[in-house]
Specification:
The protein is mostly beta strands and 415 residues long. The protein is 3% helix and 42% strand. It is rod-shaped and about 95 Å long.
């Protein structure tokens, strides 16, 4: 019956076959994330036509029944954030490297959960009669913009064989007629930010004086940042301006970023990004003031800049004299991960003539609308896993590995 159905459909190649092969795999995580190279086991099911003719182009499917990795106990991977690609070796009557790729389709993968990879597909044009064997080779897992490369560490046995007969054929047989054309491994989305162009500084407010002013505009200063992110270490420069409005003995601060410091590695829903920065005090005063922005009101598509909204906080002077305000450490919470950006150098954006206030900022005991210097502040996230505005160092080592894989010891059987 099946043969008759195939004939009716005009398919001249033989019925599809599938076979699983298991092999030891050596996986190399992305550079710069501090994880060791680990060995695991890959189990792959290769589907291809059992027979075909010279001249046919056949579709091939690589299904992962076990990847050589699991999701670490650090971060939940969102749905549709993981994409595999790799190479299948053809040998025997014909030799070829067949590029395979799968769609970026996966269910949400919880911390510690088994890695779920989509089926990879590719095509092979048959050029010689005889037996053509198909053997899995290296593959790449792209997740949250990072690439993990997995290579066989032992000789892999062929997973499928196509018997190719002489003759001119033009039709293809496939276990999945939607098989895609050959494609090279996916390249990672970069979260690097472009260097900024210098902005024209506005007039600096140097003192409150006796002129009765209450609004003070800082000058725009270019701040080069080094950012520790789930994608590794990135460099970015942004023009930043610090403005102040006098309110009694204190000042309401507004910090404006004129350019983003990073691009989004994935699609981020609304309400999942929270920026926080420390304004560094100098001159007569010392310490820092924490300013923060609202959660993102709109979704951010993959590859788009993560715009920094106006950051606000309250500065209560701790000293009398000329006090300076400069951009400091920027923290961006996004989808449960943290990117910490530290200035390579900084510059004074605003100078104020201040009068000491009780419990003021001098000595590092600054106050803000949400926290004190060096503390942890609730971000206002409306879900149960509310984000925290973290300090410069806290959690960096953990977060660097958040978007990559840890690998399971070699196992020969599925549990």
């Amino acid at each position: 019956m099946l043969a008759g159905a195939a004939a009716l459909l005009g398919v001249t190649a033989g019925l599809a076959q599938a076979a699983e092969v298991s092999y030891a795999t050596h996986c190399v995580p992305p550079s710069g994330v501090g994880l060791p190279e680990i060995d695991g086991t890959t189990k792959a099911d290769i589907s291809a036509p059992a027979t075909a003719k010279v001249g046919d182009t056949v579709d091939i499917v690589w299904k992962f029944t076990q990847a050589a990795s699991k999701n670490p106990d650090l971060i939940d991977l969102p749905a549709n954030s993981v994409q595999p690609s790799g190479t299948l070796k053809a040998a025997g009557a014909q030799s070829a490297d067949i590029a395979m790729t799968g769609p970026r389709e996966n269910p949400a993968i919880p911390k510690g959960g088994a890695m779920v990879l989509s089926d990879m597909k590719g095509t092979l044009k048959l050029t010689a009669a005889g037996q053509v064997t198909l053997t899995p080779n290296a593959y790449v897992v792209n997740a949250l913009g990072t690439n993990t490369t997995c290579t066989p560490s032992e000789t892999v046995q062929p997973a499928a064989t196509i018997t190719v007969t002489a003759g001119e054929g033009s039709s293809s047989a496939s276990p999945d007629p939607s098989g895609s054309a050959s494609a090279s491994p996916s390249s990672s989305s970069s979260a690097s930010a472009s260097a900024s162009t210098s902005a024209s500084p506005s007039a600096s407010a140097s003192a409150t004086g006796d002129d009765g002013r209450t609004d003070f505009t800082g000058k725009v200063v270019d701040i080069p940042y080094t950012c520790d992110s789930p994608l590794g270490v990135k460099k970015a420069t942004s023009p930043i301006q610090i403005n102040a409005k006098k309110d009694g003995g204190s000042y309401d601060l507004t910090v404006q970023f004129k350019k983003s410091v990073m691009d989004s590695p994935i699609d981020i829903p609304a309400g999942k990004v929270k920026p926080t920065m420390r304004v560094v005090l100098g001159g007569s005063d010392s310490g820092s003031v924490t300013v923060e922005g609202p959660l993102n009101a709109e979704a951010i598509p993959q590859g788009d800049p993560i715009a920094i909204p106006d950051l606000t906080g309250t500065y209560k002077p701790g000293a009398t004299g000329e006090s300076t305000l400069s951009p400091g450490v920027l923290t961006i919470e996004a989808m449960g991960t943290t990117t910490t950006c530290t200035p390579d150098s900084t510059a004074v954006s605003l100078t104020l003539t201040t009068e000491e206030q009780a419990s003021g900022a001098s000595g590092g005991s600054s106050s803000s609308s949400t926290s004190t210097s060096g503390g942890l502040a609730e971000t206002g996230a409306d879900d149960h896993a509310s984000l925290k505005a973290l300090g410069l160092v806290a959690g960096t080592a953990v977060l660097l590995g958040a978007a990559v894989f840890t690998f399971m010891p070699g196992r020969r059987h599925l549990r």
